[in-house]
Amino acid sequence: MDFSLISKLLALFVVTQALGLAVGIDLIQKINAGEIEQPHIVTENPGDIENALGLFGYIIFFTIIILLAIRFIWREWFFRVLEALAVFASAFLVFSVFVPEAAAMLAALLVLLRVVLKESLWLRNIAGIIAVAGAGALVGVSLGFLPVLVFIALLAVYDVIAVFGTKHMVVMAKALAKSNLAFTYALPTKKHQFELGAGDMVIPLAFSVSVLREGFSIGFPNYLLVPVLVLLGSAIGLIATLEYSSRNVGKALPALPAQTALMILMLAVSRALGF
Prior knowledge:
This protein is mainly alpha-helical.
């Protein structure tokens, strides 16, 4: 086992999920207090399965757009504009929780630094952490418990098809990583630079925030127990996937199926134990 690689993965995972949970808690509190409206994807009812199907449809649609752009109009500036928009929107949400008076300025500064220091792996990972924390928390409060289960199950099946079947996920990952874009995390080692898709961080965060919201009424810190157990399952799935990849460099392996199975297992165990 490459302990250096695993330690880097765990550091990224823990920081991303902790930041995302903090943002999720803030959003849940504001929604419950009526300070902000309930975010919605398709319908205003977060418990509607249609929201899960709609979000999955959006992902398929934007994946097709990106693949077409890679195939026919590849221009680095096009993808950097996409990254800038995604990072700014998510960073604004995150900074609004901690420094609301300077949220727009800090989000813009992060985007500017990405433009100026576009080759920096550290800055790329920092931008990825902040973007994932905001996006995952927002998705988590937008989907009820059952829709988020349907959503992650659909994505897990899709991930297998996209990596082993059509292989278009591999094409996307290589193209985006080539330009050092914050849609993937960089995990460099002495032998190889491993790439971890942002989705492998967003999905467990969205699931854990949705679970957190369901049990929010039991109060702090008890409402964190089940989400943390869910994230533990996700981390184990990620470690197992990355360990396989480190031993089989060049062979792509989707992490989400293992993450999803272990997250659902941990949730089931926690429910069986009465949590």
